[in-house]
Amino acid sequence: MESTFITAIQNIATPEVLLVIFLSAVYGLFVGSIPGLTATMAVALLIPLTFYLDNLSAIAAIVTLEACSIFAGDIPTTLVRIPGTPSSAAYTDDAYALTRRGLHETSLGVSLVFSVFGGLFGALILIVAAPQLAKIAFQFTTYEYFWLYVLGLSCAAIVSTGSRLKGALALMIGLMFSTVGLSEVHSVPRFTFGFDELFTGINFIPAMIGLFGLSEVFRNTLTSKTDEAAEKLESATKEEDDHSLFRHLKPVFGGVLPHFWKRKFSWLRSSCIGSTIGMIPGAGADIAAWISYAVSKKFSKTPEEYGKGSLDAVGDATSANNSALAGAWIPALVLGIPGDSVTAIVIGVLLMKNITPGPEIFQNTEQLVLVHGIYLTFIVANLLLFPLGFLAIRSGSQLVRIPRRILMPMILMFCVVGAYSINGSYFDVWVMLGMGMLGFVLEVFDIPLGPVVLGIILGGQLEQSFIQNLTKDDSLLSFFNRPISAGLGLFCIALWLVPVIMPLLRKKWSSPA
Amino acid sequence: MKPLFMVPLVVDSWYLPLHSKDSNSLHWQSCFLKYSLRKPSGTELMNQRAIIEVSVRYKSILLSLLLLLSGCAAESVDDYPDRPITVICPWSVGGATDRTSRQLAVFLEQELKVPVNVINATGGRGVTGHSRGLNARPDGYTLAIITGELNMLHWQDLTSLTWHDSEPIISLVDGAGAVFVKKDSPFQNAQELRDYVKQNPGKLTATGTAAGGIWHLALAGWLDFCGLNADDIKWIPMNGAGPSLQELASGGVDLVCCSLPEAKTLYESGQVRCLGVMADEPLAEFPNVPTFASQGMNWSISGWNGLAVPKGTPAPIVNKISTAVKKIIDGEITVQGKTFPETMRDAGLSTRYRANDEFAVFLESNDETLGKLLTSDAFRQMSSKGTGPLVFPGLLAVAMCVILGCLAVQKKVHALAPDVTKDTVTSQGVVNTVLVLLGIVAYQLFAERLGFVLTAGAILFLLLWKLGTRWWISALITLFLIPGIYSLFAQLLRVPLPRGIFGW
Lengths: 513, 504
Prior knowledge:
- Chain A is mostly helical and 513 residues long.
- Chain A has helices spanning 2-12, 15-32, 39-50, 55-72, 74-80, 92-100, 104-137, 142-159, 164-178, 204-222, 226-237, 249-253, 256-262, 264-279, 285-299, 311-335, 341-352, 365-397, 404-421, 426-444, 450-472, 483-510, and strands at residues 181-182, 189-190.
- Chain B has helices at residues 20-25, 28-37, 42-57, 59-68, 96-112, 127-134, 150-153, 190-199, 214-225, 241-249, 264-268, 315-329, 340-346, 356-375, 377-382, 391-409, 427-450, 452-466, 471-492; strands at 85-89, 116-120, 142-147, 166-182, 205-207, 234-235, 255-259, 272-277, 302-310, 334-335, 338-339, 351-355.
- Classes of the chains: A mainly alpha (513), B alpha/beta (504).
- At the A-B interface, helix 3, helix 9, strand 1, strand 2 and helix 10 of A face helix 1, helix 5, strand 2, helix 6 and strand 6 of B.
- Chain A: The chain crosses the membrane at residues 12-30, 108-133, 145-161, 168-186, 198-218, 328-352, 372-393, 405-423, 429-458, 479-502.
- Chain A: InterPro entries: DUF112_TM (IPR002823).
């Protein structure tokens, strides 16, 4: 064990591997911060290169790329309200509200610090508990998945700002969109209205870009207030006459590290949620972010701030989505079952490199060195994210200084290119346009947009697991016939009943005794 | 180089890129022809003149743009390939088809000396990817990976596409179906399974792919072959082999039917047992797995994939591609000291190379076999069972009504009324928003013809200008941003941005 660990350190600490890690970190930050390009796409683009790299470098590149691009997704989320990756959708409103108050650098600083520590925690879980935890993740059947999706979706409705009912309505809208296209379970095209392109359904990346990004463009162009807001930002970000060495660090990290220390327990909680959910195959960083956001709001002393610019929310959700990344490697390495879309590619790469993921990967000394190399890369990548992320924040922050009348057409350009690039299809641009208008209308009615996105993402899987369960046994009781599914199911039902029962109880208690 | 003044001629072919099929088959020349055959109306002429004027007025900008960007659209068969090639893979990342596509892409890149990118056009049970690959412009710059589903989907009325829409190049992977059970399952071989099903029809559940997919067909066909009903084993539709095997290992289903390499990890670690492989001969990589034939059931079926190009691709280009592919499968090209067949073997994929005509013959017979199965009574009957496709949307609609009802009961209906007091909408704002909308629509209409750089540049410049930036600042931003975006996306990140008349 120790000797392989030392070999792994020696292998990593070569200039070539470190250079690969550095370059992929830069590449990851770059790709992640462009809306429309996801971490998965970045990794897929890297595959031809992995042929030319040795095993360790190839895997190290993927790990670094993943960690950096998930953080980088927070940059456009915070600055221009376009979630860079789907896992940022949970806290988009919070992060952007902070930007409007001129606190974008603080918000991104919190994102960075919590991401780094969340990622490190995930790595720790991966190192300590991989084989044991994978066994639990392997107990999940379609029943458990069904309840897990219900849980994720319920959280989205519960945490939404304003009325929960409106959150639920937004969720239903999203779920409805997810039913468009060829139903995977029935092989029947639904709601396609004769358009061949709708066969595939509505892709959530253009939908997300439209709902958040384009609707923001509309909001800005429709009102004449655009430049006023920009000026406000400018005055808020004016740098003081501070010539100390730390004047650049201050806006990003000032107050963030004490804040982190104050919230160490909520960080721990979110990271635990993140890595647990990451471990479950098929439930990735996005569900992790939603659930930890909901839990964080539940335990918060200031739940009314959530959705209107809460640093706590941003911190908790980002630590969860970053720790979920390492979690997803657990089933991938131990069982050869991908935890998310990135690890699906990783398994392909490993097989190409003649390494079969599975229990024996932990027994074969040569492969154990590689596994330890993966652990170490997770740590190195997260540590490297600190300085590089800081630079990315500083350079990205210049964006908000650009007058809105210039920024908006540029954002529009990125919306169009981003929506197009995910599949190279014009239809996705129409989807983005439609969703942009829908997003604008929903905002006018004060209906939150986050649940719509999650509904589109999870709707297909929810329906699939629902139908699969019914196919196995058409009684609804079968949804509770396994211990884990019963537990999860009862928990979900309790979650729905609490807001209904609580007011009644409160009335009873507060009535004169 | 094509003359600049032809640009506005495209204007009157009012053409929506929405229907990508047409967009690919129509070339800009055909628009020109269409134009010259028809006398333009007065307004059209005015529009064109206006655009020509614009292009004259900003000629200097356009010229400098031209200088900035190299690349020419002189597309001739001899120069092929002179720009990146796209491979459309109809299945998602990580799967066997994706792995094959990506490996092939790396080797093709080495041989053809241009970047070869893989796009996963997933969804619609393969309809999306197959139609995108085979309906692409037949210029050799879009290659299609086709899989067994191409010979199934049209029998199930999900698409009108058949293999006849393709120019088959080579078949690559040929994975025979195999049946897996969990390690603590009582079944040791396929006969025991058959005997159990005979006595207990409908008791077992199986999965592996969507309902009506290749592995469902394999299992149902086998039951039919054994004289049992095709639905004596309940099929749980799943999205691919990965989740199916996870479901098997967690005890959610009794059987999984998929190809052996897909279950390699779990099989080799002893988590699952293979009851048999639906092939005539034992597989070279897994000689210990018995075939169904050796167990007295002469049943074989396999899922395959291969490379094809859209029908109508010029013969010299097809030849160039197949020569390149021939060299690759013959092991004449190495990447990192490994040949293509070696890397495929390492990935555990069973290959069966059938070049051009042989592939076509195989496609014909495979199409016939699958068609017979899919149109047989045994298979027809079972497709109509289960929960209907509108149950889930129906439930959602009910839930939506309940929520709206609750909102009404809570007297929060007024909260649904638009809140216009927050920000004032100005008339200038409305005009600006309309401009933004027109910008997106204009991009959709012209990008495919004019290419990304011209279209996006014009739109960005006009928007910046109309939103109140001085014209030279707008021009400057456009001049830097658009080529920047183009080189970032199209060259660095290899996103296939629209290439119009000039090749960019």
